[in-house]
Specification:
441 residues, alpha/beta, seven-stranded mixed β-sheet, four-stranded mixed β-sheet, 16% strand, binds pyridoxal-5'-phosphate, transferase
């Protein structure tokens, strides 16, 4: 490492508290100071490059320093960087809301904005509870989440998250949620199919609703892929069955598409594959192309009408300073333009096929189980590895020009949608090489 890089690292370690990190680990695992990004690649100050195979925590869709998003942002910078959204409005937020509504066939026609995913989850939970309350159903105060669910790190979002590592320390601060069986297809036993697992998991929801649906405001689900749980994938049937149960028992369905939305699973919204519509849909991450913090909660007219009143206290009095930030909305509009102009969902199908083909040696590897794919997400579980696997894999990957961070023993790929054929080969060949190096110890 050059002296310049060393200096950035020591200044960062002295002053920046890095996310999701035991800072002491940086005594042995080097921090990488990024100088710039281009396309799918990040570059450090010493000219080394890293293929961003997890889209910088699943946010980047069309590459770093994308010329089209850059141009839109430059244009917006000269017009309006920010204006508060209470009492005022502006073109980017209006256009974005209209286009998102149209993307749901106007079923989810009311867009409420925040900055990060966890804030969107908080909003959806509060809106669900408050809309029931406004309708005289004050007893509906509980939320249901899935085993292995992940919805963010704020106190409310963590309450509906089921990842012990993130949650346990804060247990005393959290309001308990009901946890139901995950529909994770890996749980199939005795010749069960993924659909059988989905039916079994929906049965668990039904039992809970039978017991106490009058107390339950909403169930929150990451549709098709529970990402932070280790890319646990389920059959779309699960979403259909839960939607029916929500209708039958009067419970809101919140679909958290923060990670799986924006084309990640093959359709623009994951729930399209099940043909279901939620009462609330949360989006963030990819919606701004990975440029700026933006999240949004889309809700139905039915929910919206529960708040519409002359009485101020029946309104949804939630706010964030940067709600509907024009720059972030403009980045989102540029992102949606790319989807349309480049027919991205169709192009991703052939890109995904090429990546799956290139990953064939891993699929058949003796130390790999549950190789799985949906849209632009690939994952597999390493067998017989210890709990240092993930950190060792990450370190070996960076030595091989790859940015990959396994979750426990699950290696996953969630690359941007703009990989070239060369990138695909680097991705597949190096992932295999790094995997073999890491399992060898
Ligand atoms: C499904 C899901 N919901 C919510 C969040 C939280 O989003 P943020 O990290 O922007 O708060 C994440 C983040 O990974 C997520 O994957």
């Amino acid at each position: 490492m050059s002296n310049q890089s060393r200096e950035w690292v020591s200044r960062s370690l002295a002053s920046v508290w890095h996310p999701c990190t035991q800072m002491q680990h940086h005594e042995t695992t080097p921090l990488i100071p990024v100088s710039h990004g281009r396309g799918a690649w990040l570059y450090d100050h010493d000219g080394r490059r890293y293929l961003d195979a997890i889209s910088s925590w699943w946010v980047n869709l069309f590459g770093h320093a994308n010329p089209r998003i850059n141009a839109a942002l430059r244009d917006q910078l000269e017009k309006l960087e920010h204006a508060m959204l209470a009492g005022f409005t502006h073109e980017p937020v209006i256009e974005l809301s209209e286009r998102l509504s149209a993307a749901t066939n106007h079923h989810l026609g009311h867009a409420f904005y925040a900055s990060d995913g966890a804030s969107a989850v908080e909003i959806a939970l509060k809106m669900s509870f408050h809309s029931w309350r406004n309708r005289g159903r004050n007893e509906k105060q509980e939320f249901v989440c899935l085993q292995g669910s992940y919805h963010g790190e704020t106190i409310g979002a963590l309450a509906v998250t089921d990842v012990a590592l993130f949650k346990d320390a804060y247990g005393p601060l959290l309001r308990a949620a009901q946890t139901v069986m995950s529909p994770d297809a890996r749980q199939a036993v005795d010749g069960e199919t993924a659909q059988d697992v989905a039916r079994r998991a929906a049965g668990d929801v039904e039992r809970l609703f039978q017991q106490k649906s009058e107390k339950i405001a909403a169930i929150i689900i990451e549709p098709l892929v529970q990402c932070a749980a280790g890319m646990a994938m389920h059959d779309p049937l699960y979403l259909q069955l839960v939607r029916e149960l929500c209708d039958r028992y009067g419970v809101h369905l919140i679909l958290d598409e923060i990670a799986v939305g924006c084309g990640r699973t093959g359709t623009f919204f994951a729930c399209e594959q099940a043909g279901v519509r939620p009462d609330f849909l949360t989006l963030s991450k990819g919606i701004s192309g990975g440029y700026l913090p933006l999240s949004v909660v889309l809700s139905t007219d039915d929910v919206y009408q529960a708040f519409y009143s002359a009485d101020v206290t029946r309104g949804f009095l939630h706010s964030h300073s940067y709600t509907g930030n024009p720059l972030a909305c403009r980045a989102a509009l540029a992102t949606l333009d790319i989807f349309r102009e480049d027919d991205v969902l169709a192009a991703n199908q052939s890109l995904a096929d090429r990546i799956t083909t290139a990953l064939a040696p891993l699929r058949g590897h003796a130390r790999v189980k549950h190789f799985r794919q949906r849209g632009m997400i690939w994952a597999f579980d390493a067998t017989d590895v210890d709990n240092t696997f993930s950190r060792r894999f990450f370190a070996n990957a960076t030595q091989n020009e790859l940015l990959l961070r396994p979750i426990g023993s699950t290696v996953y790929l969630m690359p941007p949608y703009i990989l070239t054929d060369d990138d695909v080969h680097v991705l597949a060949d190096r992932t295999l090489a790094v995997f073999e190096q890491t399992i060898a110890g």
